[in-house]
Write a structure and sequence with these properties.
Blueprint: E1 4-8, E2 13-18, E3 27-28, H1 30-45, E4 51-56, E5 64-65, H2 67-75, H3 78-97, E6 111-115, E7 119-120, H4 122-129, E8 132-136, E9 143-144, H5 158-166, H6 168-176, E10 180-181, H7 183-188, E11 194-196, H8 199-209, H9 234-251, H10 256-268, H11 273-288, H12 291-308, E12 323-327, H13 331-342, E13 346-350, H14 354-373, H15 379-387, E14 389-392, E15 403-406, H16 412-423, E16 431-434, H17 441-444, E17 454-459, E18 468-473, H18 479-491, E19 495-500, H19 507-524, H20 528-536, H21 544-551, H22 553-567, H23 574-585, E20 598-600, E21 606-609, H24 612-616, H25 626-646, H26 653-664, H27 673-680, H28 682-696, H29 704-712, H30 716-720
Amino acid sequence: MTDFTMQKGDDGVAVITWDVPGKSMNVLSMDGAAELNNLIDDALADEAVKGIVITSGKADFAAGMDLNVLAQMKEGGPQAVFDGVMSLHHLLRKIELAGMDRKTQKGGKPIAAALPGTALGIGLELPLATHRIFAANNPKAKIGLPEIMVGIFPGAGGTTRLIRKLGAMAAAPLLLEGKMNDPAKAKAAGVIDEVVEDPLAAAREWVLKATDADLVKPWEQKSWKMPGGSPYTPGGFMTFLGAAAMVHGKTMGVYPAAKALLSAVYEGALVDFDTALRIEARWFTHVLMNPSSGNMIRSLFINKEALEKGANRPEAPDQRVRKVGVLGAGMMGAGIAYVSANAGIEVVLIDSTQEAADRGKSYSTGILDKGISRKKVTEEKKAEVLGRITATTDYAALAGCDLIVEAVFEDPKVKADVTAKAEAVIPADAIFATNTSTLPISDLAKASTRPEQFIGIHFFSPVDKMALVEIIRGQQTGDRAVAKALDFVRQIRKTPIVVNDARFFYANRCIIPYINEGIRMVGEGVNPTLVENAAKLMGMPLGPLQLVDETSIDLGVKIAKATKAAMGDAYADGDVDAVIFRLADAGRMGRKAKAGFYDYDEAGKRGDLWRGIGENWARAEDQPELTEVQHRLMFVQALEAVRALEQGVLTDIREGDVGAILGWGFAPWTGGPFGWLDMLGAERAVELADKLTAEHGDRFAPPALLRDMAAKGESFYGRFGGQKQAA
């Protein structure tokens, strides 16, 4: 079976169809590229062929390059990567020149692309090499170059062609942010040429009418000038200078792909097109050989996709949810109701008063109205989604629900009460899930008459925006409950990780120490600006002080008191409490109070760090080095992730890395805490952790697992292989 086939029509049009067997969407492999190359050669050599149309046998055109192939290329070293990328450049350049005489720019055969749906990555780079791109009028289709999102950049000519086609300024959102558009917006941006009802028919008609001039790309013409100006023109100079500042401001210098992309664009703009392609290939090779890109590809694509497809799902029949009951219509419950209804699931949303239940349903109304204002949602879609949500106070409405998601206050008594009320009316085989971020699932399950059907589901706020869902297996939770939770998360299009029950589960047990370490340093007299910027310069999306402001300081106080009560003499965060308790006593509860570690204006917009920090906690005369602060903030998270694995809370390092990035934004350039430790090497990690332990305490003590790996010269992905371990 082949990925590409060709059919030559009586009208002289050869249609090359891309249809990868066994894949829901087309991806390009090196074997597939060789097939396409041979078909192009055949069509160009056949005098009976007047033109070529490249299309897809699937509903979409292509999802991009097979990233597993890139991983294999990387194993061969930089020369293998460069040679492989250049082979793609030669193929696409062959399509672009289409047999024309380079001097006269005549004699070529027109080649068009007909896109029935989504075209991403190489799925757009290939069409950009053709002479005209026709896309179906399909508003659900996505067209773009999202490579930057997984730690690389478009390296098959997409960078060079798009810059020359649009100019650096217009191409920046597509290249540097991975922005994807529907066909109409892609046409308006100048990325594609036509949006039609039947792209194959339109493309076939165009190639039969195309002239020699239609085949000559603008940058092949002597009079061509780069849109917006090349680097050393007045307009171009400001564009490239601004782009460099923007990239550094957004990436803080820790994402190699963004810097390499900008270098490829800048250097490529100074030379001819073919030389620019070689420059692009060299910078792409540079990025792919960087450990960061491999880690990002592994976590944000390969592992994330595996988890979403149920890599760790227990053997059980299909547990697709038909009707879900959501107990509690606060922000969390309202968000769960929305994502469920939006995924086509019937929802019963319950609260103690009808007013509260209706208010919870109105949360969905607000999201849908915003979608309508942005032309992403229709009035029909809004009515359809809202029609699936029944807001009520009547527990009898839960009859027929096959899943219950409880999202009431973090109070065991309140949770026990609603558990009993729900179990009195729901079917005997229904699964009951409690949404909690801190309370042990095994303890909450004591309120259930069917603990094997009781499970934890930890959603992150806001539910409609956060991609991760943490599923917590209690001591008595059965496999069917886990399968049900996983199938539900798949239905609502989130990424799940499954962890075993323990205090704070996985995400919170890692993020709370990060927050606490930042607060602890404030108490020590470390400049809070140094603390916040040290975190951001390591790729954390928020500094620990800003993060605690966002989550609320009173919540931190509540967690601290509960943790101290549970741990007794083993509690080791009294120095942290001294800081946040004082803030809480002063009414500085964070963003919601318009006062926390930061100051806020009346609209709630964050301003500068509160000047009172220096007045309450005297600034130390000797400030630590930047790297010391960074190591404290990173190791306190990463070591906790290792402990979670060591203790069996985590059973799969893939879940640990994907969960860390999606759950709390752990420096995505590292691929997650286990990826970061592998980049450091276990021996170096132990050396640094021992140094931190000596200077700052036992919270930095390397776990026995990490010491053992250091002694044996092992890495996490080398030892565990990205597979689930026995609990």
